[in-house]
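ok so heres the complex, two chains, lmk if somethin looks off
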Amino acid sequence: MKTSTYLSELEKELSLLPKKQREEILKEINSYINESQASQQDVIKRFGEAKDLALSYLEDAPELQLKEKRPMAKIQKFFIALSIFSFALVIFAFFLFKYFTQDAFNYSKYNAKNIENKITHKWKNLENIKTINIHQGSAVFYWSEKNIFKYSCANENTSIKEKTLFVKQNACYFVLPKKLLHLAGFQADLTLIEPLFETAVKIEQAELRIEQHSKKYEFIFKKEQSSIQDLNSVKGNILIRIESYQAQVNKYEY
Amino acid sequence: MQDDYRKWLTQFRKGYVELYTLLSLKNNSPMHGLGILKFFEAHNLSINEGTLYPLLNRMETNGWLHSSWNVPQTSGHPKREYQLTKKGEEILPLLIEAYDNHHKSMKQIIKEK
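and the predicted structre for the whole thing:
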């Protein structure tokens, strides 16, 4: 057996000892084998099997020395396992979050003309509505060149009162006419796809996303504890008034 | 029978090899492992490396010995050299006395038979 092989085996068998002590032992034995006048094979034979030699070291090591090592190894293993499990959990949670929060489809690829074909729920026409109020729900707004005013929701949880359409815990799509409308959202997710007319939006604890395509808008913000990102206001264009409280306003991204 | 004898001898050696190691280092300090083995050979004690080195390790852990690495200035491998500590010097007379007492007791028991 080669000296290096013997020392490797011994190192493995001594793994319970502290690293520094293990290294000293290996260094000493290596030095002895190399310095000895007898052949390396004979010296290794005199040391005995690596397993037996290691056992002698371990038997002679004070109990405390080994005990310190064992719990550490267990603790290390526990934390490594915990880290791997936590990492896997985070990855799983991330994909789960993505799955449940991702848009049903890329809203920006549709418009008032073709959204009707995409949405299978029943469409209802609207008249004399000035405000659309979304409460704990999501809504995507498209603007029609032909002044069509209709909507389609996942359930019937809607009501109309004093020229306001109330939508609660629902997911809806709207096709809006070219007239001034007030959109309100509380704990809601509102998406505006290329507005064609002046619009006033008031949101609280909500998210508003705007797809401009190539259009430019004049944004007027009134915000409190809110963040507004990636929206450039250009004067003289279609006016979008946004009043936000504890909300996020972003450019639409799928 | 042979196995039983070997096992007993291994255990028995642990005690007296420690004593002889302390004795060898008492007057020849510092010494490396090979030097200690040569000392044993010179006194008709047959000890192999696989017995000595783990014991040296234990004796150092017990605080009876202190080791340091002697790195040759020209050529050769570094050698781990051992010398007695104060604790080792203090315990040596006690071990000698214990050894003597056991030896006497054994002689007496054999004699009584």
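quick notes: Chain B touches chain A through 19 residues (CB under 8 Å). thats all i got rn
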